[in-house]
Amino acid sequence: MPKVLSQETVAEYQRDGFFFPIRVMSAEDAAGYRAKLEAYETLTGGPIGSNMRHKVNVLFTWGNEIVRHPAILDVVEDVLGPNILCWSSSFFIKEAQHPGYISFHQDATYWGLDPPDVMTAWLAFTPVTLETGPMQFLPGSHKQMQIPHRDTFVDDNLLTRGQEVEVEVDESETATVLLEPGEISLHHVLLVHGSKPNTSPDRRIGLAVRYMPTHVRQQKVRDSAMLVRGVDEYGYYDMEPEPEADADDDAIAAHADAMERQVAALYSGTDHTEMKK
Questions:
Q1: Which distant-in-sequence residues (6+ apart) come within 8 Å of 153 by Cβ?
Q2: 194-207 pLDDT, tens digit each
Q3: Residue 57 and residue 183: Cα distance in Å, rounded?
């Protein structure tokens, strides 16, 4: 029996490839995490960027706290089972009135993970409204399995390779993902989704946490991940350490190692060695 989600909700996720909204923390707690992020940005002199936007659970104690949040993991366990790895956690930040967008794509295209039993829990730090550029999900598209993509490497595209599906997406058929701070949406690694620019006067901040059962393998590199619940009976990944302090020397070293592996997987076949700014 599910811990949090109803059996009907789990069936809806399996049918459509997504489910939202699910409240996992208060708006005040979400605002507190935004404050921690922006304190780091103030310290470093600008918006968090490039490799530092990814694997934040390895780099920051509060990032590790989020990916291990019991309310999130209870939801994830209802879908993926009791043994859970966090493969990645990535900030998707659209600055106020900025042209940045995300083309329609499937997450799985360049990740190298097999089988595709991978789910993203996307946590809203700020309100996600029509003006801030919400995600749009194409229901049932995860059942088409892998769709051909093309790389664009367009500057304003927030994806690593500017990748987009090589099919036309009828936006009238998509579901628009509106969220309040402290709510998450769930989506399958093969679900077609994208989003438009943020036209509002405030930043749109979301943290995408990628969870998977321990039986999922990495096909491209010897990868790393963080065990966040249950046991790992397979040993397919090197285990990432929990940070003991925010961005201290040990955390930075562990983060650099984890990102080198992830960049090698995501950018295989190209000459890129660092995530987009």
A1: 161, 162
A2: 999 999 999 999 99
A3: 19
